[in-house]
């Protein structure tokens, strides 16, 4: 089944943009997913095609009008999958959420501009709010491109070798181990011996140890989750704290 992405934006010309190249571009051409970018301005009702207005209560900037945004949502959202609003106050995007989106038949993404979207339309439509990270972009479009890139590469058939996903960062709760290729010695730096040994189990153990060490030093938050899950798994496997081996 073809995954359907719809982006609601004031800048439809930004799409497919980088999504037309490389992995997402090939997947688009192969029909694994389809992309529609709807211009929110097409849903304005006055002759000036106004989409925004000043904020009630005063303050800087402009706010996207609820009536215009809602009409765009009605036209673009197939309701077979989530409606996402990209905003710095949303849940920060991670691989778990990417996987959830990739398992849906469709994803509709609302891109804000200016100060954002009138709150009432977000309440009325029960949107899922998603952030790309703790920084402020000029608009939701770069976040939509990043989100769709991450989702599309998980669609079945999008990547050439399926096992290239298995050991990627976050897939097993860890950051990835380091990679090396030819030449075996470069500027006096040698590739770790074990990688030249041809001993698959030792290579695999070395990679796991490096992935764990990198995660532990760089991302204590991920490491804490990983070790908690590992402890839970071990407890379950041996009967758990209340099981026969945990008495
Ligand atoms: N006034 C907003 C605030 O302080 O949170 C920022 C508005 S920003 C200039 C315009 C739009 O860019 C937002 O409505 C949102 O759609 C998008 N945007 C900005 N930063 C983002 C982020 N970190 N993640 C996702 N979308 C973002």
Automatic annotation (TrEMBL):
S-adenosyl-L-methionine binds at residues 112, 132-137. Gene3D superfamilies: 3.40.1280.10, tRNA(m1g37)methyltransferase, domain 2. Pfam families: tRNA_m1G_MT. Its EC number is 2.1.1.228. It is found in: Cytoplasm. Keywords: Cytoplasm, Methyltransferase, S-adenosyl-L-methionine, Transferase, tRNA processing. GO terms for cellular component: cytosol. GO terms for molecular function: tRNA (guanine(37)-N1)-methyltransferase activity. Residues 6-224 form the tRNA methyltransferase TRMD/TRM10-type domain. One of its GO terms (biological process) is tRNA N1-guanine methylation. InterPro entries: Alpha/beta_knot_MTases, tRNA_m1G_MeTrfase_C_sf, tRNA_m1G_MeTrfase_TrmD, tRNA_m1G_MTases_N, tRNA_MeTrfase_TRMD/TRM10. It comes from the Bacteria. Specifically methylates guanosine-37 in various tRNAs. PANTHER family: TRNA (GUANINE-N(1)-)-METHYLTRANSFERASE. Belongs to the RNA methyltransferase TrmD family. This is tRNA (guanine-N(1)-)-methyltransferase. The lineage of its organism: Bacteria, Pseudomonadati, Pseudomonadota, Alphaproteobacteria, Rhodospirillales.
């Amino acid at each position: 089944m073809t995954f359907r992405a719809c982006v609601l934006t004031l800048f439809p010309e930004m799409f497919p943009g980088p999504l037309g190249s490389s992995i997402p571009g090939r997947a688009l051409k192969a029909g694994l997913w389809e992309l529609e970018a709807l211009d929110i301005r097409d849903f304005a009702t006055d002759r000036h095609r106004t989409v925004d207005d000043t904020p009630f209560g005063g303050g800087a900037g402009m706010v996207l009008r609820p009536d215009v945004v809602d009409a765009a949502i009605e036209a673009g959202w197939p309701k077979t999958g989530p409606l996402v609003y990209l905003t710095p106050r949303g849940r920060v995007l991670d691989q778990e959420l990417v996987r959830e989106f990739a398992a849906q038949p469709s994803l509709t993404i609302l891109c804000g501009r200016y100060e954002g979207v009138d709150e009432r339309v977000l309440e009325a439509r029960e949107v899922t709010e998603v952030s790309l990270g703790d920084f402020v972009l000029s608009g939701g479009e770069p976040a939509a491109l990043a989100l769709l890139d991450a989702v599309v590469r998980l669609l079945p058939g999008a990547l050439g070798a399926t096992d290239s996903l298995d050991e990627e960062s976050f897939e097993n709760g860890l950051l990835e181990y380091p990679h090396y290729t030819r030449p075996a010695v470069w500027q006096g730096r040698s590739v770790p011996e074990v990688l030249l040994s041809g001993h698959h189990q030792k290579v695999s153990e070395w990679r796991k140890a490096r992935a764990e060490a990198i995660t532990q030093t760089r991302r204590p938050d991920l490491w804490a989750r990983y070790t908690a899950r590992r402890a839970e798994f071990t407890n379950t496997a041996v009967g758990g704290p209340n099981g026969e081996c945990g008495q």
